[in-house]
Specification:
This protein is of the alpha+beta class. The chain folds into three domains: about 130 residues, Response regulator (Rossmann fold, 3-Layer(aba) Sandwich), CATH 3.40.50; about 240 residues, 4-Layer Sandwich (Phosphatase 2c, domain 1); about 130 residues, Heat Shock Protein 90 (2-Layer Sandwich). The protein is built from 13 helices and 20 strands. β17 and β18 form a beta hairpin. About 35% of the residues are buried.
Length: about 525
Amino acid sequence: MKILIADDEQVSRMVLDRTLRALDYDVDVAVDGRQAWEMLEARHYSIVIADWVMPEVDGIELCQRIRRANVEAYTYVILLTSKFEKTDRLTGLTAGADDFITKPFDRAELSARLGVARRILRMETELRDAKQRIEEKRRQEIEIGANIQRSLLMARPPEGATAFEFAAMNLPSTAIDGDFFDFFVHRSTVVDVFVGDAMGKGIPAALIGAGTKNTLLRSISRLLSDTGDGRLPSPRDVVQTAHSTLARELIRLNAFVTLEYARLDSEKKIATFVDCGHTKVLHWVAKDQKTHELSGGNFPIGFVPEETYGQFEVPFEDGDVFCFYSDGVTDARASDGDFFGSDRLVELLGKHAHESPSELMYRLREAIRSHTSDLDLDDDFTVVIVRVGSPAEPWESTQRGFRSDLSSLTEMRQFVGFVGLDCNLDAKEIDELQLATHEALTNVIMHAHENSGHEVIDIEAERLNNGIRVRIVYTGEGFAPGEVDEPSMNIYREGGWGLFIIQRCVDKVSYGTSRPGVNYIELVKLTP
């Protein structure tokens, strides 16, 4: 246990030093309060024994500085004093002193008081270790909850509903949430979309969300099996059946689930909604270029045991856009407490509704991040965007050229974000792909082209069955670094961190030359 002595009196300092060493303590000595503070800034001392009266920085100020430092490990402070008044002791305690030793000190008393200090420090260490174990369990719970969200609560946009374009995204908050969404494709022209949010936080909310999602899917399957003649059960019947299964158990658990259930039928040009207390669906109508908010009047699932659900219908045309979202979008807060709000969401949808759902989703994600300054979200950000009408040119690969300049990096990252969403990558996978692409492009711009701005970089994106391949094609000097070890934290090696980041952010990276003078960097990102 390391002890620091701070005393400007040489004799007193020497006697105390020898006494502590005789008691088998490890001791450092400071000749005044200023030197003691410099030593404390450089390392941690478990115990500080400081004279009350010292020039410049006295024992009281030294104690106050120690407490203001707010380091994780506790420092036990004993003041050496000849002051006996109650008010003096109160001053010392208020400054943060733990104990006092009266000058001239008695060796037996000093040893006893240090024994008290050791016991208190040992208990403090045990409490700190217990806190760390609790925090570790909390991190494990968050990781388990995040896995539940990825595997059970979220879904990939469907491939079979070719009459529509889809984009879906979930940005998790720091707390595990009960957001969920899924799709049920009846045929290429008819698809059910539902987005929900289980009340509460943590793994319980995630499990309730997962159970509700599973119950809805089983309700659809059971009702389809019961009819047996190809007729589709109404959205109202699907929700009513799920409610009948879940309501009493949810009420027993003091929980409920908000839900937006929709069936989009491009043959009839009708969207049928069952709104169960969820956020309003936004419907951008291409014909009049206006956004309408759609909502019903049903209670959430599990709110009351005998709820009878109603549905309503909305006509649509090719080019229309529907936006389903959780309250984590509108409740995203800036540092000053300002909510993102529905007005900003409506404005963004109206401005970019003509773009693909993936581009629109990417712009919304970036708008949320810009508004919150990348602060942690209080609630999950969950959005599903559906455009009526199949893509004009369904793509397997796409290519775009960019000017080789650092100012083009933002546009390049956006392009990769768009195509990543089109390939059904989730938010984390897109972030990793963008980061790897950013580092690779920076290497090309700075080293192969020396940031001249006169060259062109082609980015080719190819859809894979389970992910995406991004190929960066450029002229000039190529390179093939091979396997990259983790760079040193202390010694900077040019390019080391960038290459290491690329390697860790994608599933496969390769470097090569396609023809003389033309090189490529190929990044492959796979979905689970």
